[in-house]
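> run fold Inosine-5'-monophosphate dehydrogenase
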Amino acid sequence: MEFEDGYSAQKLFHQGYSYTYDDVIFLPGYIGFPVEQVDLSTKLTRNISLNIPCVSSPMDTVTESSMARAMAALGGIGIIHANIPPSEQASLVKVAKSSRFPVLSNPVFRSPSDSIISLENFADAPCILVTDSGDCRGKLVGYVTKSGWMNLTDKETRLANYMVKSSDLAPWDCDLAKMICYFEEKAGNEFTPIVKGGEIVDVAGREDVERLRGYPRLVGGSSVDANGEWMVGAAIGTREADKERLQHLIKAGVNVVVLDSSQGNSLYQIDMIKYVKKTYPELDVIGGNVVTMYQADNLIKAGVDGLRVGMGSGSICTTQEVCAVGRGQATAVYKVSSLASQYGVPVIADGGISNSGHIVKALSLGASTVMMGSFLAGSAEAPGAYVVQDGRRLKKYRGMGSLEAMTKGSDARYLGDTSKLKIAQGVVGAVADKGSVLKFVPYTMQAVKQGFQDLGAQSLKDAHDMTKTTLRLEVRTGAAQVEGGVHGLVSFEKKSF
Ligand SMILES: NC(=O)C1=CN([C@@H]2O[C@H](COP(=O)(O)OP(=O)(O)OC[C@H]3O[C@@H](n4cnc5c(N)ncnc54)[C@H](O)[C@@H]3O)[C@@H](O)[C@H]2O)C=CC1
Ligand SMILES: O=c1[nH]c(=O)c2[nH+]cn([C@@H]3O[C@H](COP(=O)(O)O)[C@@H](O)[C@H]3O)c2[nH]1
Ligand SMILES: [K+]
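> ok
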């Protein structure tokens, strides 16, 4: 029997309002299965499948090699930003794909006849690798740990005199499970270099392995391509020079490209989509950003394999203030998805995700994945070091359209090559330390699964089907939103897991 209770998505999003995630609330459905049976596997593009619906933003304070590796290990994907020269971006892609162990350690190399005079020689590396040639192509003879070096009285002494002698190497396709076995077998080793194609590409440490063992495990597995390497995406622009950038990325083995623009429905982007599809027919290309059916239709006709949705919804975005264009993110995701689904083009809900509930809403309203910037920027895997401010550990997070990011690399794109007027569409800020994505993303996915269970959706397909049929939702008034949050307490501590 049908009850007159709540609104269908179609009715709710046809009222002339731009709604965002917090404006709407879903009415629960019927739970007929355990939470473990919720399957969050999904599609990033027509041809790329993921085990979790998570994508990291192509921003220079969010996604470089370390984030891309971790996102792939989790079963999602990272999109490497383009705010650096093409060869550097390509090398970040290559590094991310060079090992299947989810931690990146940027090893430092020396030869046996070298000495280490200062702790700074370790840079951020956990140890120094000693090879006969003193570089990554040489034959491994041993390694030096920080504590081994600290205990030295004579810092001038040569590495050959105190290094831990070892020639043990782990192959690049050793994932966490294989690395656990490796360290169990090699009881004396604290570190093992990882080798690929005759080159040492990274180093794994016993401590990392132990730490990762304590993290929650995701069922479903990692994002691995046909060559057994992590899947990694990269952003490019729509200028002539981006064709050369793309060549570098292709050589590095990039699996998907995102045409990174705030307003994707342009002559430039349509030309670029056609160029990419013609030149590299095997490569999936994601177009955007779009927020309307009209914009999406143009890019779908041009041949995109995926669409990125969101304009001005990002935490660091000022586009709606500056340019007066954009859309509430819930409406944008619903409207674009309802068109894109007719063509089998998956939608990425980009921006405005600050909790697991927002992810449930984005996915239920039709998105196949969510792209996140601020949600991931405070993690250990995001680029940059933590700073301590008023007793809190913070990491910098900035918009790619902020003045600071523009002057770092995207001037040509932003200002027009000859223009001298800089108009920011983003801000520079900071986010709190959240620890490793390898730890908090699995908890977040468990929360999303619970949301799906409450709705009565066992998969993304179920949720998408329900949104077209039985799902009911409502707009929350201001008071209802207050009620939905924590309220009326003198103090509280919000700990999610
Ligand atoms: N999602 C969002 O709401 C927003 C995102 N951003 C982010 O900021 C960054 C830059 O975004 P946009 O400024 O939109 O970059 P964009 O590269 O699309 O546009 C910058 C300027 O270059 C022009 N342009 C692009 N290709 C051209 C060509 N071939 N010939 C001549 N002119 C050309 C555009 O029309 C525009 O005026 C991206 O990382 C984007 O994701 C910025 C603002 C909003
Ligand atoms: O208006 C903008 N000015 C900017 O400078 C800017 N930089 C990034 N982005 C977009 O914001 C998304 C990340 O948003 P969140 O932090 O909310 O996850 C990203 O994925 C982008 O879509 C920008 N938007
Ligand atoms: K905003």
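The CA atoms of residues 99 and 303 lie 32 Å apart.
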